[in-house]
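Extended Data, panel c. Modelled sequence:
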Amino acid sequence: MNPLDFAGRAVLVTGGTRGIGAGIAARFLAAGADVLVCARTAPAALPEVDGRTARFVAADVRDPYQASAAVRATVDAFGRLDAVVNNAGGAPYADAATVSPRFHAKVIELNLIAPLHVSQAAYAVMREQPGGGAIVMVGSVSGVRPSPGTAAYGAAKAGLHHLAASLAVEWAPAVRINSIVVGMIATELSGEHYADIEAVAGTVPLGRLGTPDDVADACLFLASPLASYVTGAALTVHGGGEWPAYLRAQVGMSGE
């Protein structure tokens, strides 16, 4: 039996209509899963692989009722819920000293509280079904190192990693919960974040930015039987991180 064959299994991907989320949805579709994606607004096109298309439901997962509705929609569509990928998140650059309190609150809501809403609703379903389920939190390196310019985002992602570890203990053995510590990823929005993508890629030991597929493969692994004894873990997907500044400053230590 192929442990990465998800035929007959149902997956919910939040924020699954573009960027990393769309890549995750496509990877599960390719593995045979039935996939539902949610976002606040409907996209021009849904993730599709070999003629199989993800279903969509509009939901702002910061609202606990809408988060629960997305979970219910998945169960109504497919009859079960085997895996959830809490991918929805993000934040624009902002000066922590001057940005509004409302901005900080919204960033933390989206990146920390929303995954908790979705996970609570998913757990209520998974604990009652044979085989339980798996939840994957899409975290960030911003949650494990300083995050200047996105301080609230980094703090929320740090909390998300801790949330996954705590829920893994509370909800075992029925449901496994893990997080992925994601590094710099190239998407259709990369130009908005990085002025010089090649220069940024040069700071990564593996010499490139990650791709949505890199993150998607990690999600597939953590949701699969291959990770049946993995829960409460944080899997780092960042190409080795970044060359330490003191090394790059030395003559002959270019990082290339």
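The helical segments are 19-30, 64-78, 101-126, 151-170, 190-193, 197-201, 212-223, 245-248. This feature is highlighted in the accompanying rendering.
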